[in-house]
């Protein structure tokens, strides 16, 4: 018998990029929303699938051995662009988590392997440490996330 789903609401931003659910975590002001907007625009401009799941608050639940992410209904399709306010982006209601992007305070030149996974809700999840906004350029941040996503399915290339 499968255990009932358990869930919570966390401070983060969630996206769907080419079928992979991405959770961006970091403290307030670290650049979660800006990185999310950059990823959404980059993927759409290159003809790939990109949807907002949730910004600022993400509902996460565990069920059937996977973590699902969704937006609280009042936030669906909305994301903050500092200096402009709340804007809308194409959104999807729920996705399965595939990668956690943690906005960090240091750029490690050659991170150790344990840095590339983290436990969430009792499950081991691939992790991508990315320097927070202002530490490196947006292009560098995008490359780090894209490489982490590529590593999820290395045989697909």
Characterise the protein shown here.
The protein is α+β, with helices and mostly antiparallel strands. It has one domain: 3-Layer(aba) Sandwich (Rossmann fold). The chain contains 2 helices and 11 strands. The strands form 2 sheets. Strands 1, 2, 3, 4, 5, 6, 9, 10 and 11 form a 9-stranded mixed beta sheet that branches. The protein is globular and about 40 Å long. It starts with 5 loop residues before the first strand and ends in a 5-residue tail after the last helix.
Briefly say what this structure is.
With 157 residues, the protein is an alpha+beta fold. Helices cover 18% and strands 42% of the residues.
Q: Outline, from the CA principal axes?
A: globular
CATH class: Alpha Beta
**CA radius of gyration:** 15 Å
Percent of residues in β-strands: 35-45%
CATH topology assignment? Rossmann fold
What is the assigned CATH homologous superfamily?
Answer: P-loop containing nucleotide triphosphate hydrolases
CATH architecture type: 3-Layer(aba) Sandwich
Instruction: Write down how many β-strands occur, each being a DSSP E stretch of 2 or more residues.
Output: 11
Helix content: 10-25%
Intertermini distance? 38 Å
Structural class: alpha+beta
Main sheet makeup: 9 strands, mixed
